[in-house]
Structures are given as C-alpha cells and as structure tokens.
Amino acid sequence: MATNKDTENNTPSAPTPADDDIAKLTEVTEQDIAEAIEDEYGAKYSKDGKRLLKGPRYTPHYNIKEGTKIIGDDAFSLCSSLTSITIPPSVTAIGNSAFSSCSSLASITIPPSVTAIGNSAFFGCFCLTSIAIPQNVRTMEGNPFAGWDGHIEIDSPYFKYEDGALIDIEKGILVAFCSNAKSYTMPPSVTTIGNKAFSVCKNLTSVTIPP
Questions:
Q1: Among positive and negative, which fits the CA dihedral 102, 87, 67, 121?
Q2: Which of 112, 146, 98 shows the shortest CA–CA distance to 126?
Q3: Are the C-beta atoms of 135 and 36 separated by less than 8 Å?
Q4: Is pLDDT larger for residue 41 or for residue 15?
Q5: In the predicted structure, residue 87 carries a pLDDT above the cut 70
Q6: For the chain, how many helices (H) and strands (E)?
Q7: 26 band by pLDDT with thresholds 50, 70 and 90
Q8: CA distance 209 to 211
Q9: Residue (of 26, 24, 4) closest to 13 by Cα position
Q10: Which of 32, 42, 51, 134 is 20 to 30 Å apart from 154, CA to CA?
Q11: Helix, strand, coil % over all residues of the chain, rounded to 5
C-alpha cells in the first residue's frame, strides 16, 4: 500500500524482494540455460525475456535489453573483455558474482530501479575505480565488493560509507571494507560482520572491534 508521502509525490516506492527471495530470483539453473533465448551477441535470456542468464563472452560493451528485470548469478563472470555495460532502468536485482572477475570493466551505472545486489557481484573488477549505489538499494547479499578496492558513492538511506567501510545501518552489519588503510576501528553501531567483509585487505594490519 502506498504511503501518504508516496501518494503526494506520485512516486511509489520501488518494489523490494524479501531477503529469502533474492537467491531464488537470481539463481540460474541448467534448465534455464537449456530453454534460453540467445541474442545476436551470444547473450542468453529467459523465455519471458525478464532475466539475463548469461552475458556475451567477448564483447567490450553490451547493452542489456530493455525490460530485463534480473541479472542472474555469474551472468558476466570472467568476461575479461567487457569494458563497459549499460543496465536498463527495468532491472531490480543484480545476482551473486554477476560481474566477478570482469578485470577490464571500467564503467558501470546502477540504475535507481535496483533494490538488491548479490554477494561478490563486483569481485575482482580491478579497473572499476568507483561505483554509485542508488537510493532504492536496501539489500546486499554477503559482500558485493569482496576483493575490490574502489570508491563507493552512496545515496541509499539504508547504508552509509565512511572510513573505507560500507555499513548496513538498518541491520548493523559491516558489509565491506574497501580501503587501503592499515588499521580500522569499527563504530559501535556495528553488531555483525558480513561474509568476506575484509576479503583481500592486503594492507590491513589491525582491526578494533567494539564490545
């Protein structure tokens, strides 16, 4: 149901999948691949065209088709030729490891329609120096930025980024530590450390954890 604020602004909130539904939405099965529709670049989509199952392997730039709602798990994983990608405003969820090890990826814009980002989604994107998280993102599975050391620009009221750390305010979870700093002191608001939060922090020598 829309709130009074939504009604007044005539801008209803973006639909947000429940935490336990995200994995189901982004999972890609063998049957999905067998029944997939392939485009002229070799990318594979679900029969209804709403889920991108596999991205093209050897294309430097790719425009995901309009109307796509889900970028599936591992969709562009190991696509080392990919340098930039355009995500349409219809996409609501980015799956686990969706862009992992896209070592040449230098440009990506996450549209405001996205509400969920999967674990290790941008793992190993070494050429990607910054990424902006739009305001509707309220779920991040594990650490989408494991092994990544870029800069995060954040507009979501559910997260904050300071001193090199991304924190889920609502749940008190340290999601990611993306800084080259040698030491880090967690704020007292943190009650949980997420999966791979300090993954590949080569320069980190000490961490102070609150009581």
A1: positive
A2: 146
A3: no
A4: 41
A5: yes
A6: 3, 18
A7: very high
A8: 7
A9: 4
A10: 51
A11: 10, 25, 65
